[in-house]
Amino acid sequence: MKIDEGIDNYESSLNFTEAEKVALRYSELMDTCPEKIDEKFYSELAKHYTTEEIIELGIYIGFNVGYHRFFGTLDFYPMFAPDGKLVDQKTSREIYGDTPVSHLKGTSEQKKFSAAAE
Hints:
Blueprint: H1 2-8, H2 18-32, H3 39-46, H4 51-73, H5 89-96, H6 108-117
């Protein structure tokens, strides 16, 4: 699945353009080590995006990183099961366990849920 590939190995993936890869790197850096987003990195972004697009992308990434961190403090689980169906928090916790992961690499509960949905 393209989303999982974007999380796990976007740098080497053939499914993403160079512009998409640099945007994914921007997201990763914003989340894990924002101090590495320097003038050189912005120059790399500028090869693919206008200043306005870089700002918009940064705002979007910043909002989402903050959003996910906030919900993590609330012990909030994903609202969707691996098959895409909306589920309540109790069911989500049963599916995802203590640490939600990609549904492709999921826990045995996630895999059992996915298999039962098929």
